[in-house]
Amino acid sequence: MAPHGFSRTTEELSAARSEALRGAAVGAAKFGIGTAFLGLCGTFFSPIYRSLTIQFKVYLQVSGMTLGGWIEADKRFRAWENMRVREKRRVKALERDEGVWREWEKMVGEDAVGVGGSREKEAGVK
User: Fold this and answer.
1) Residue 27 CB: number of other CB atoms within 10 A?
2) Cα–Cα distance between 20 and 48 in angstroms, integer?
3) Contact 77/18 with Cβ under 8 angstroms?
4) Positive or negative: CA dihedral 36, 39, 40, 41
5) Fewest C-beta atoms under 10 Å: which of 72, 84, 112, 124?
6) In whole angstroms, what is the distance from residue 99 CA to residue 93 CA?
7) Tens digit of each residue's pLDDT (9 = 90 or more) over 23-65
8) How far apart are CA 119 and CA 126, in angstroms?
9) pLDDT at residue 1, as a whole number
10) What are the counts of helices (DSSP H) followed by strands (DSSP E) for the chain?
C-alpha cells in the first residue's frame, strides 16, 4: 500500500517520471547557461578563476547544472502531484454530488409520481 492511501498505477508513475525528466532537462539547461555566463565573467574578470584547473572549472559547471536539474525536477514533480491530487478530489466531489443529486431525484420523483398519479385519477385521465 502506498503512503497516505494513494496507490499509483503504471501510467501515473510513467507520467510522473516523464514530467520530472522534463523538469530536470529544463533546469539543467537554465542553470547551465547561468553557470556558463558566470564562468565567462570569471575568466575575464577574476585572476583566481583563471588560475583554477580545467577539471575544477568543469566540476563547477556540472555541479551547477546538476543543482538546476534537481531543483526544477522537484518543482515540476510537486506541481504534477498537486494537480493529480486536485483532480482526484474534484472527481470525488463530483461523485458525491451525483449521489446526492440521485437521492434528491428519487425523493422528488416519488413525490411527483404520487402527486401526479392522484391528479390524473381525479381528472379521469388514464
Assistant:
1) 22
2) 37
3) no
4) positive
5) 124
6) 10
7) 999 999 999 999 999 999 999 999 999 999 999 999 999 999 9
8) 11
9) 47
10) 3, 0
**Can you tell me which residue has the cell 553557470?**
35
Nearest to 35 by CA among 49, 23, 21: 49
Check pLDDT > 80 for residue 6.
Answer: no
pLDDT tens-digit readout, 69-82: 999 999 999 999 99
Distance CA 88, CA 5 (A): 12
- The helix/strand/coil state of 104 is helix
* 81 Cβ neighbours under 8 A, 6+ residues apart: 16
